[in-house]
Amino acid sequence: MQKEKVLFVCVHNSARSQMAEAWLNHLYGDRFEAQSAGLEAGTLNPLAVAAMKEEGIDISHKNTQTVFSLLKKGELFSYVITVCDEASAERCPVFPGAAKRLHWSFPDPAQLAGTEGEKLVKVREIRDAIKTAIESWYTEISGKG
After folding, report:
1. Averaged pLDDT of the chain
2. Which residue in 7, 92, 123, 130 is the catalytic one?
3. How confident is the model at residue 126 (pLDDT cuts 50, 70, 90)?
4. Element (H, E) at 11
5. Which of 1.10.390.10, 3.40.630.30, 3.40.50.2300, 3.40.50.1220 is the CATH number of 4-142?
6. What confidence score (pLDDT) does residue 85 get?
7. How confident is the model at residue 83 (pLDDT cuts 50, 70, 90)?
8. Which of the residues 6, 7, 10, 49 is marked catalytic?
């Protein structure tokens, strides 16, 4: 059975989309092949790396990429899921093919205020919310509710 391809998109591909990609591949990699990209290429957020490492998932080797680089390659996806806020989601391009487009809004870790420790607590909350969203979505599309 060929895996369904899923693309997670956020603003800079530095945290939310990277965590979503990692969670989907970790939890349901037997059915899905996830990738992530940003509207612009950013720098991987070290707090996202740390938060995922706490769950035993290493994303430190991941490079950021833009959605336009995937468009130019002609990549096709079954699902394109934006994980940025509403205003940024409106800027996301429409991918050719039969992709189903979904939007899950999560706070931007780059915009968090506070000490590094306080920010890490909030990034953990975002990480866990992304995992919950993926698990719920999988249950919904699999009919395993």
Report:
1. 90
2. 92
3. very high
4. none
5. 3.40.50.2300
6. 73
7. very high
8. 10
Active site residue 84: yes
Residue 92 is among the residues annotated as catalytic for this protein: yes
Query: Residue 145 above 60 pLDDT?
Result: no
List the chain domain ranges: 4-142
| Six-digit token string for 52 | 């995922």
Residues 79, 141: contact at Cβ < 8 Å? Answer: no
Q: Considering 84, 89, 130, 133, which one is annotated as catalytic?
A: 84
Count the neighbouring beta carbons within 10 Å of the beta carbon of residue 80. 23
pLDDT of residue 95: 65
> What is the strand order of the sheet 4-10 is part of?
32-38, 4-10, 79-82, 100-103
Strands 32-38, 79-82: pairing is: unpaired
